Amino acid sequence: MGREAVTAPAGGTPVAADDLAGAAWRRREEVVWRYVGDGIVLLNVDDAGLTVLDEAGAVVWQELRARRTTDELCSRVAARVGSSAELVGDDVRRVLSHLAVRALVERADD
Amino acid sequence: MTDTTTRPPTRSAYQPAATTTTTTDPAALAGAVAAAGLPGTVYGLEPAELTDDEWRALLHLCRSEHLAGLLLAASHDSTGRLQQQRREALISMHRQSMESVLLLEHAMLRTVEALAHAGAETRVLKGSAVARLDYSNPSQRPFGDIDLMVRPHEFDLALAVLRDLGFRRETQGISPRFDRRFGKGATLVDADGVYLDLHITFVQGRFGLAVDLDDVWDDAEPFVVAGRTLHALAPEARLLHATYHAVLGNWPPRLLPLRDVAEMALYGRWDDARLRRLSQRWRADSVLATGVREAWDLLGLQDSTALSTWAQEYVVPAGDRRVMALHRTRGSSYTARQLAAISALPWRERLSFAVCLALPSREFLERRGTSLPQHVARVARRSLTRPSGR
Lengths: 110, 390
Fold this sequence. Notes:
By secondary structure, chain A is α+β, with helices and mostly antiparallel strands. Chain A is built from 4 helices and 7 strands. Chain B is of the alpha/beta class.
């Protein structure tokens, strides 16, 4: 889903699939980004690492404009693309993991 | 998901649009792209209808005028029909542009923080500030360098801070004293090829010296980048600066600066009375009127606003026309532009200005491959033929 840019990725922490369940997320402030076509290019200002998200990754990023749990994200993305949370769940979790590893999102658990 | 955010225009601000026409004329294509999404433009663009040669010409123009984002927006309505190959080439061009923009914002944050740490206040000009504050979709407003403004008395401090960050000055000013008192600023570049324009005022010469810098620094508009608060010019000064850049920055005029003028003139949150007051105090009515008029003309805008109506009716005085011509002629003399500035100065500063101009630093003379007598003779010769600007 998310596609790496040619530059080195940011050094976030790998996220285990189990950690995603029930967790809440938000965008990190230290990220600048722009739309490119249906995708998005992002830069983590901590290390100037560039990341490119395709259209599906961009939907997840857009829905992260506010704090969301993983389940909420799945529901909202499913509603956007006219599918079910179960069907989009794997893709959403893959994007979340990708974003977390690059320190583009952070946990926002209460 | 779309690449554009459509912003409903304020209908009270202008009148209904004229009939839209579509062009395939290469010279008008870039103008049509630059006008994409603006209300009332007579230009229409159907990228899917272009021949391969017309498409290649358009891509070339969009690359040189930094319009890939706007072309992508203009293509959106016909995305389904735009050939996949064309769309992929356009997105690739836009992605390169946006990656460069993000890296520049990263460098901008680094420099602004270093300057603040050293005690130098900054205003972000053009680029990131305009993209984030004046465009509904910042992705449509790329930029190729960083423009920062500092107070004249902090110019040397700022240069030292930037030198410590790895920037070197690309061109030498006439002299350090001239730079601080009468200069526009300096262009610097670092080892990664990041260009930074460090401004004291907006443009060199008479129009730059007439800007009241206290007005500029009295107000600001904050904006946030990666969680950090930076400061842009206030909306009225930002619109005025956009017209300086569009009218005096390049010849022939570039399309993106004119798009900036149109965006701000149509959608900006400026106060008309304050805009007119600043324009008069800075003796910039001719620049403001010309910038708005050329934006309307080149972008094919038919709707009128109070500002565009004033601009169309404004008659540029002969003196202003002569000084503007120095900025709008290929190969016009740097010395001639500087000499024209003298009329913007109070009488007590004119002698100091003339001495500074006539006695440049050794570095300035060496870079120009000239001697002091040759330089003095050149200044004297130019001063006999300079436009007074009055």
